[in-house]
Write a structure and sequence with these properties.
It is a single chain. 57% of the residues lie in helices and 4% in strands. By secondary structure, the protein is mainly alpha-helical. Strands 1-3-2 form a three-stranded antiparallel sheet. Strand 2 and strand 3 form a beta hairpin. Helix 5 packs across helix 6, helix 5 crosses helix 12 and helix 9 packs across helix 11.
């Protein structure tokens, strides 16, 4: 394995930096299922799944999800409960709802084609600027400029190693300068893999970013309860608030606002005294 120089601040040139990253990728790049396809829909699915979720958790779900929903039309026309059932284990169920909504729009307005333009992608549900740019880069090899956590780690390590308050505004011009415009797909894959490698050998450089947010404990959190509600309703189809309180070992005061949010987000519907998937 390559040796990490933890004291290095800046390579002699952008070309040397690029060579270092690409050499690592050539020898140690990860074999990930979404890197073995050129289907924009499949890459769209992977990018939504990878938002705030570790690669190892996504790998298996990506394969089973696409087996169940192999096309944009199959996802767009599926009941939300089926989509949520396939999504179980990934968390942040709003992403599953947004992904299905994306498919509906792509079916209706884009003839089941994923647009390559980030300005069009960003209009789709659940897709922000960074995700739009990454889809454009990975699905269409467009030379877009974006930052995610592993990319951030690499640039902070090499260019801002002695700083502890680095903003993405400072990083973006360097990311743009270093971009391999001929093969942005390979370049961003290489950056992400090198970022993963870095975190195993030095303290996480992303902690030096002004955008770093420490993840709060999942167990017992509102997110934990939200996931439990969805999981229960996916399997039992409907339940009363009392059923949910007993099953999740929570309280009325705790679950009531969470249920209200899920209804407001159109993930759940309430009929008289029971809740079910929208």
């Amino acid at each position: 394995m390559p040796v990490i120089n933890t004291t290095i601040q800046k390579p002699l040139s952008v070309s040397q930096f690029r060579s270092l990253i690409l050499d690592y990728f050539k020898n140690y790049g990860r074999d990930l299922p979404w890197r073995n396809t050129s289907d924009p829909y499949h890459i769209l699915v992977s990018e939504i799944m990878l938002q705030q979720t570790q690669v190892e958790r996504v790998k298996e779900k990506y394969v089973t999800f696409l087996y169940r929903f192999p096309t944009i039309k199959s996802l767009a026309t599926a009941p939300l409960s089926d989509v949520l059932q396939q999504w179980q284990g990934l968390g942040y169920n709003r992403r599953a709802k947004s992904l299905r909504a994306c498919a509906e729009i792509l079916l209706k307005d884009f003839q089941c084609c994923v647009p390559s333009d980030p300005l069009k992608l960003v209009t789709l549900p659940g897709i922000g600027k960074a995700t739009a740019a990454s889809i454009s880069a990975f699905a269409f090899n467009k030379p877009t400029v974006f930052i995610e956590t592993n990319i951030r780690s690499v640039f902070i390590h090499f260019f801002f190693n002695n700083r502890s308050d680095v903003s993405d505004t400072e990083l973006l011009p360097i990311v743009a300068e270093a971009l391999d415009t001929r093969n942005s797909t390979r370049w961003y894959s290489a950056l992400m893999d090198y970022g993963v490698f870095l975190k195993k050998h030095v303290p996480n450089p992303s902690r030096k970013s002004t955008h770093h947010v420490k993840q709060s404990s999942f167990i017992g959190s509102d997110r934990h309860i939200r996931g439990g509600i969805i999981k229960m309703l996916v399997h039992s189809q409907k339940a009363t608030k009392k059923n949910l309180i007993e099953a999740l070992a929570t309280s009325d005061a705790r679950i009531t606002p969470i249920l209200a949010d899920l209804v407001k987000e159109n993930l759940l519907v309430k009929t008289k005294s029971t809740f079910s998937i929208a």
